[in-house]
């Protein structure tokens, strides 16, 4: 799903729609990442990394906004 969204960002006619969909997907999935990071026995990939995950999420959200909406004329 995410790879299709990434491909949609590269194809100009679908760029804005792909950016909106990826932005929505990332926003909806973020609470699951928070939940996983705060579990008593979190997965190894999430252990103690909530601050890093949050920063990474903000970076990706900004990139989706820049690519998708930076191209509107």
Provide keyphrases for this structure.
73 residues; mainly alpha; 3 helices
Topology, pairings included?
Blueprint: H1 2-10, H2 15-37, H3 50-69
Helix pairs in contact: 1-2, 2-3
Organism: Pseudonocardia yunnanensis
Protein name: DoxX family protein
What this model shows, in words?
It comes from Pseudonocardia yunnanensis. This protein has 73 residues and is mostly helical. It has one domain. Helix content is 71%, strand content 0%. The protein has helices at 2-10, 15-37, 50-69. The chain is elongated and about 45 Å long. The model has no long low-confidence stretch (mean pLDDT 82).
Instruction: Give the number of domains.
Output: 1
Strand content: under 5%
Shape estimate: elongated
User: Which sequence of SSEs, written as H and E, runs from N to C?
Assistant: HHH
Average of the residue pLDDT scores: 82
Number of helices: 3
């Amino acid at each position: 799903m995410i790879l299709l969204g990434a491909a949609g960002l590269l194809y100009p006619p679908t760029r804005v729609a792909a950016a909106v969909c990826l932005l929505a997907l990332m926003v909806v999935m973020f609470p699951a990442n928070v939940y996983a990071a705060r579990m008593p026995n979190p997965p190894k990939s999430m252990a103690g990394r909530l601050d890093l995950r949050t920063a990474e999420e903000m970076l990706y959200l900004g990139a989706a906004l820049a690519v998708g909406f930076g191209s509107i004329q």
